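Need residues for this backbone.
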């Protein structure tokens, strides 16, 4: 695509990121981790959202790489929602988030193509989050979010990119969508 304004577009096979769109953090359903069974219900995810909206935890929820804090924060989680009819199916979604340049680079260049939630919940040996202001214990509190190349729930569920090739077209044969190119050009300005 050429015009008086230069536009750089990068494509990854079978992958397309849509900036600003909700990111699925966690699906509903029965999942297994070792000997534990994680029964993630809509009610549980709705409680995660309610706790977040009430200000729990009492700190800003950062986004890190691979659940490691020593690499620094690469973004902030600003809002959550349980979406029954979300873009990648039913589940918990980050509906507002902000990434640092390091976070954007991790997604665009370094292979971080999924997310993984950090949640304090009774599904982990009866764990509860203690509110430091009141001393009250709470179940289902999200405390962090990580960018990761290997999501626990799998790329079909929580990938930042779409992992399914539903077009039947091999990537090298795919044509760039003209409306997408127009939107990019408009954003460039």
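Answer:
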């Amino acid at each position: 695509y050429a015009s008086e304004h230069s536009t750089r577009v990068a494509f990854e096979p079978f992958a397309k990121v849509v900036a600003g769109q909700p990111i699925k953090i966690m699906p509903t359903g029965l999942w297994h981790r070792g000997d534990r069974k994680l029964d993630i219900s809509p009610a549980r995810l709705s409680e995660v959202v309610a706790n977040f909206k009430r200000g729990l935890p009492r700190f800003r929820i950062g986004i890190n790489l691979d659940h490691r804090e020593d690499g620094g924060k690469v973004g902030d989680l600003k809002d959550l929602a349980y979406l029954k009819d979300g873009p990648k199916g039913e589940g918990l979604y980050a509906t507002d988030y902000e990434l640092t340049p390091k976070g954007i680079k991790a997604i665009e260049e370094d292979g971080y193509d999924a997310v993984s939630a950090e949640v304090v919940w009774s599904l982990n040996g009866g764990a509860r989050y203690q509110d430091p202001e009141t001393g009250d214990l709470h179940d289902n509190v999200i405390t962090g979010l990580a960018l990761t190349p290997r999501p626990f729930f799998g790329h079909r569920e929580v990938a930042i990119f779409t992992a399914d090739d539903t077009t039947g077209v091999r990537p090298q044969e795919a044509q760039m969508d003209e409306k997408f190119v127009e939107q990019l050009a408009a954003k460039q300005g």
